[in-house]
Amino acid sequence: MALVFQYGSNCSESQMNSPERLHGDARFVGIAETVEDFELAFDVFSTNRSCAASDIVRKPGGKVWGVLYEVPDYLMSRGSARACGRRSFDAIEGEGTNYKREMIEVRRPNGQVTSALTYTVKQPQSGLTTNIDYIRHIITGLRERGVPDEYIARVKAIARANNPDVAAQVQII
Question: What is the DSSP string of the chain?
Answer without folding.
Answer: -EEEEE-SGGGSHHHHTSTTTTTT-PEEEEEEEESS-EEEEEEEEETTTTEEEEEEEE-TT---EEEEEEE-GGGTSHHHHHHTT---HHHHHTBTTTEEEEEEEEE-TTS-EEEEEEEEESS--SS----HHHHHHHHHHHHHHT--HHHHHHHHHHHHHH-GGGHHHHHT-
